[in-house]
Amino acid sequence: MSVIIKNLSYVYSPRSPYETRALDGISLEINDGDFFGIIGHTGSGKSTLINHLNALARVQKKYNENATLEVCGIDLTAKKPNLKLLREKVGMVFQYPEYQLFADTVKADVGYGAKNLGLDKEEIEIRVRDAIAKVGLNYDEVAERSPFELSGGQKRRVAIAGVIVMRPELLILDEPTAGLDPRGKKEILDLVHSLKQTCPTIVMVSHNMDEVADCCNRVAVLGGGKVTGIYAPQELFAHRELINSLGLELPTVTELAQYLAQRGLPVSPSVIREEELVEALLKR
């Protein structure tokens, strides 16, 4: 298992008038090799949950006497968990990661994490070249440029390269296509699919159900700080009422499939991917 969570709770501003229980006895498991989606309305606990996976939010002993939080084999309920090892094994790409770019050159920005691992210069150079190539950029063209001179999509690729240079076992993506135009979204989603080859387990938070349907093999639905269910995408998007209750929309392909099915075409209303719908229509 990449992640084992049992009875995890978290409270903001405890013992104050603003006390808020963001997580309330969360339990779930993420298997090695999963592309695991996390969805829910604003305030459902998504960000608080993923922040626990790389210890940006620490386990509160008072509220978690019987809790389990194990990430990539590291017990984060321990008194002194190995956070250095955790940061090597778990990479997080925040929403709008390009806002975290800081170095004078792309090469320096991407290599910052690897340098902090104490690797020698030769290994850092190898990793930086590899990471830049994996995000679809040309090393010779961008390495010595300022990251702030690049386009929005290129900046996001550089930011992602700065995470995968660590070669994490678990990659966490928080709204990876937020703020991008349709072309930029498609490019980043294509990149995310390619990263699965080198980052075996991926967790993605998204409000975009097209992305969830396209990428994920399992999806956890959060509400009120609890896991209300874990579904395969086909099963999840068969529940229109549930998706509507979360203030979300069905994947575009599923909406179209249901529209066609209601009008007599032999198309399954649970279709979630373009190729499945195209195949059904061609058969028709």
Describe the SSE topology.
Blueprint: E1 3-12, E2 20-30, E3 35-39, H1 46-53, E4 68-71, E5 74-75, H2 83-89, E6 90-93, H3 106-116, H4 121-134, H5 139-142, H6 152-164, E7 170-174, H7 182-195, E8 201-205, H8 209-215, E9 218-223, E10 226-231, H9 233-236, H10 240-245, H11 252-262, H12 274-283
Parallel strand pairs: 3-8, 3-9, 6-7, 7-8
Antiparallel strand pairs: 1-2, 1-4, 4-5, 9-10
Helix pairs in contact: 3-4, 3-6, 4-6
Task: Walk me through the structure.
This protein has 284 residues and is an alpha/beta fold. 38% of the residues lie in helices and 20% in strands. It contains 12 helices and 10 strands. It has helices at 46-53, 83-89, 106-116, 121-134, 139-142, 152-164, 182-195, 209-215, 233-236, 240-245, 252-262, 274-283, and strands at residues 3-12, 20-30, 35-39, 68-71, 74-75, 90-93, 170-174, 201-205, 218-223, 226-231. It has a 6-stranded mixed sheet, sandwiched between helices. β1 (3-12) and β2 (20-30) form a beta hairpin. α3 crosses α4. The termini are far apart. The mean pLDDT is 92.
Name a few traits of the molecule:
6-stranded mixed sheet; 38% helix; 10 strands; alpha/beta; 284 residues; 4-stranded antiparallel sheet
Which assembly state applies to the chains in this document?
single chain
Helix content: 25-40%
- Name the average pLDDT: 92
Strand order of the largest sheet: 6-7-8-3-9-10
Q: Would you list the SSEs in sequence order as H and E?
A: EEEHEEHEHHHHEHEHEEHHHH
H/I helix tally: 12
Biggest sheet features: 6 strands, mixed
Strand content: 15-25%
Shape: globular
Q: What is the total tally of β strands?
A: 10
Class by SSE composition: alpha/beta
Radius of gyration, whole Å: 20 Å
Unreliably modeled segments:
none
For the terminal residues, how far apart are their CA atoms? Answer: 42 Å
